[in-house]
Every structure is written in structure tokens, then in C-alpha cells.
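In response to the reviewer comment on reproducibility (Comment 2.3), we provide here a single inverse folding case reported in full, input and output, so that an independent group could reproduce the run without further information from us. The C-alpha cells appear first.
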């Protein structure tokens, strides 16, 4: 029987059929754990193959403003890290810093380490980046400047690559990345000997899931309250995210399966690293004596929809009550301010057992998924986390 449409329709038909077949093959192949993790973490997609990340000056930093060093995890992996000095502290110690330290020398003997540990007012932000790349890739170097911009004489940044990323050894997994994050905090607590209240965790995208899990670990397993937790463009859980996520904003992952619930459940059940951030945030808030949580999301984030931040805000607020709270009850009590032309800020406060649990939810009209990390809202977020 002849094809009933014209040539152009025939080409379009077979093009769509081919794309559909390729999508089906790709999604089916991702049921294999190794391939799935390569797709999720994209850790092999980085420029460290040809860029020397031991020379951060190529990203516009001053000579020795960044001290590269290695962290060791409890399970024997080596993580590549940067200690980024705030510009104000650098200015005060320019002469000593320009004398230089070698990468091979102990980080604890470095000038940057001494500046951090000798200043009673110093704060440390541990940065948890998203998938793909390394510590110096994309918007990340600009993000480090934004993190310390609010108090440029005292806010230091510790950035590190998870296992399997950049120069770090090993292969990524959910449990492995949590171990890496715990190792970074342990370095701050036990090597730099900073008080927990002077340490804040800030994550973006995938990094929000890691940072949340690490904050939960310290609250639940060790009874340690850190200075604050900042989540930029977070997602509430990986399975939920995959149901709406499109690669590059165009290629859907599991969205086409919504019409086939049984098939969708099979694929969802094959997800190896589930990253249940919503549940972890609930436990973190419930078990902590004091909480300072800030969520930041842009309405024009086409990678992770802003509704994920909404879900985390309500989960955190709900966890401050032993009886539980509905979204309607939370909305009736929370403080919300609309900022014309910019977005809105919602805040939830609860005094529990003598401690204050505070959750802020900042929406911006613009910022996208990655560029938002360089905006002044992030600098202000860090000041809020430290109460500066």
C-alpha cells in the first residue's frame, strides 16, 4: 500500500520513529548499573585531561589564592581539593602568599591553612558541585567568588571533586559520594579544627543531594550541628526528577513512560542511586537541635523544576513539628515576601527544645540552573547561613 502522505511527511515520520527507537535503546541500556552511573554522574566529561588544574590562575585567581591539596577518605580514595582564600584575607597576607607553597608540601604547613586556622572569625563553606566536570569547570570558579563575596575577609571555600571526578580516584556511587562529603567535613573539623558552627555546606544540583545526605549524617549519626546548609537548584529525589527531566531541556528521560505506568515502574525500580533528598531533609531537620537551611531556585531553571525546592521547603517545615503539618497549615503561618521584578522569599521558623529551626526559600525569576550560583543571592545566602 503506498504511503498516504507526501515525501516531507514520510521523512518526518521515519525521523521520529528512528529517534524513538534510539531513545528506547538508550533508556533500556541505562538499566545496567555501570552505564546508569556514567550517565547520571557524567564524571568522565571534564577538561582535566588537557587542563592543569594545579594552576588556578588561568581561571582569574591571584597567584596562590588557591591552595590545591588532596583529601583521603576512610575507604582509601584520594580526592582532589582546592582551598580558596577570600580576597580580603589574601590582600592582608599578599607578601607571605607570593613566597609560595609547593603542591607536594603538607597542606597544614601552607600559608593558606595558617590564615584559615589562626583567624577566630574565619568561616568555611564546603562546596558540593553538580555532575560532570571538575572543581574548575564551567561556572564553578565564579561561584566560589560569589560564596565569599559577602564577607571577603573571612569566608574561605573548600571545593573538592568527588571520587571518579577530575583527578580524584575511584568510581562514583551514592554511598561513595556521601563518604567523600563526610571526609571533607571531617577535614574541616579534625585537621583545620574549626568549630562546627563556622562550617556551612552549600550544594548545587547533584551537590544538593550530597550536601543534604552529609548534613543528615552529622545530625543523626554524630549529633553535630553545622553552621548551615544551602541548596541551590535542588531536587527532591532522583526517581521523581527523572520523571520530568529532559537532557539539555529537550531530550526526555522517563517522561514518555507516563502513559505506561507499569513500564515506568520497571524503569524506576532499576534506578541504582535514588538520592531521596526529601526524606533526608526531614530527618536532618527533625534530629538537629538547630537548623539554618536556605533553598534557592530560579523559575527559569529548565533542568530541575522549581517545584522540587517547594517540596523540600514543606518537608523541612513539616519536620519541625512532632504532629506533622500540612502544606495548608504551613502556608497559613509562614512569612512570605514578594519582591517585584525579582521573585519571592518565604521563611519558616520554629523554636524546638530551646533551639531555633529556620528554613528560607528564595525564588528568583531568572538565573537558570548554573549561572544562578554566581549571583549576589548566593553571597547573601552564605551570610544568612553564618548569621553575619
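Designed residues, in position order:
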Amino acid at each position: 500500500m503506498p504511503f498516504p502522505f507526501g515525501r516531507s511527511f514520510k521523512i518526518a515520520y521515519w525521523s521520529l520513529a528512528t529517534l524513538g527507537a534510539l531513545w528506547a535503546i538508550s533508556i533500556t541500556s541505562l538499566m545496567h548499573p555501570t552505564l546508569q552511573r556514567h550517565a547520571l554522574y557524567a564524571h568522565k566529561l571534564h577538561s582535566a585531561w588537557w587542563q592543569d588544574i594545579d594552576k588556578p590562575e588561568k581561571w582569574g585567581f591571584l597567584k596562590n589564592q588557591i591552595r590545591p591539596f588532596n583529601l583521603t577518605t576512610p575507604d582509601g580514595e584520594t580526592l582532589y581539593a582546592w582551598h580558596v582564600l577570600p580576597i580580603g584575607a589574601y590582600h592582608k597576607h599578599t607578601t607571605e602568599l607570593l613566597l609560595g607553597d609547593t603542591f607536594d608540601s603538607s597542606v597544614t604547613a601552607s600559608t593558606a591553612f595558617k590564615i584559615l586556622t589562626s583567624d577566630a572569625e574565619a568561616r568555611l563553606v564546603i562546596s558540593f558541585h553538580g555532575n560532570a566536570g571538575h572543581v574548575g569547570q564551567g561556572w564553578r570558579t565564579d561561584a566560589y567568588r560569589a560564596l565569599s563575596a559577602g564577607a571577603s575577609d573571612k569566608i574561605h571555600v573548600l571545593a573538592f571533586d568527588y571520587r571518579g571526578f577530575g583527578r580524584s580516584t575511584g568510581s562514583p556511587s551514592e554511598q561513595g559520594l556521601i563518604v567523600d562529603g563526610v571526609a571533607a567535613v571531617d577535614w574541616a573539623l579534625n585537621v583545620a579544627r574549626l568549630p562546627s558552627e563556622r562550617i556551612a555546606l552549600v550544594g548545587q544540583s547533584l551537590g544538593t543531594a550530597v550536601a543534604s545526605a552529609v548534613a543528615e549524617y552529622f545530625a543523626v549519626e554524630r549529633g553535630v550541628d553545622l553552621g548551615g546548609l544551602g541548596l541551590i537548584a535542588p531536587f527532591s529525589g532522583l526517581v521523581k526528577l527523572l520523571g520530568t527531566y529532559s537532557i539539555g531541556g529537550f531530550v526526555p528521560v522517563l517522561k514518555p513512560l507516563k502513559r505506561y505506568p507499569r513500564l515506568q515502574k520497571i524503569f524506576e525500580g532499576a534506578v541504582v542511586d535514588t538520592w531521596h533528598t526529601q526524606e533526608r531533609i526531614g530527618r536532618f531537620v527533625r534530629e538537629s537541635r538547630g537548623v539554618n537551611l536556605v533553598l534557592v531556585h530560579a523559575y527559569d531553571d529548565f533542568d530541575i523544576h522549581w517545584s522540587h525546592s517547594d517540596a523540600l521547603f514543606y518537608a523541612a517545615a513539616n519536620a519541625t513539628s512532632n504532629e506533622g503539618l500540612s502544606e495548608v497549615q504551613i502556608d497559613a503561618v509562614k512569612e512570605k515576601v514578594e519582591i517585584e521584578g525579582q521573585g519571592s522569599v518565604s521563611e519558616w521558623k520554629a523554636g524546638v527544645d530551646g533551639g531555633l529551626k529556620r528554613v528560607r526559600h528564595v525564588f528568583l525569576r531568572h538565573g537558570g540552573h548554573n549561572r544562578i550560583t554566581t549571583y549576589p543571592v548566593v553571597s547573601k545566602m552564605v551570610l544568612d547561613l553564618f548569621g553575619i
